[in-house]
Design goal:
By secondary structure, this protein is mainly alpha-helical. The chain has 8 helices and 3 strands. It has a 3-stranded antiparallel β-sheet with strand order 1-3-2. The radius of gyration is 19 Å and the shape is elongated.
Length: 160
Amino acid sequence: MIRDQAADGSDGGAPRTPDRLRRRASRLLSQLTARSDRLINDGLAQVDARKWHYAVLASLQEYGPGSQAELSGRSGIYRSDMVGVLNELAERDLVERSPDPADRRRNVITISARGRRHLRRLDTVLDDLHDELLAPLSPVERDQLVRLLTCLLDHHARTC
């Protein structure tokens, strides 16, 4: 395991990480991902939520009701994990399950009114967390970073 001090490349102002490592985008993205995940997971836990809750609620809000399989594809959550996430959301009355009229073997998941309110709260929490994560960047730089990351993800999604 890498210590935070070594991972961030500083030791009282003097870089400890070799320059050739600090120039590797893959390494920088990996380290930032670890820090981002920790920040987001800890922040959402303070409001009794998880990032998967947000992904499902956002998907339902933007694209409307869907089956478990559709939600898995939209959110990137494995189908095997989706049932557990939906159980958590249903227990909190954030989503509603109803039999699919076209196929009674599956359920259609819909965001509830309470789920829409919770999603707005999570948006605010995540806005604050992203402000913390991206603090050194200006608004223009933040938008540019998001565009560049989206470009990379879209490119690699097409080639995989």
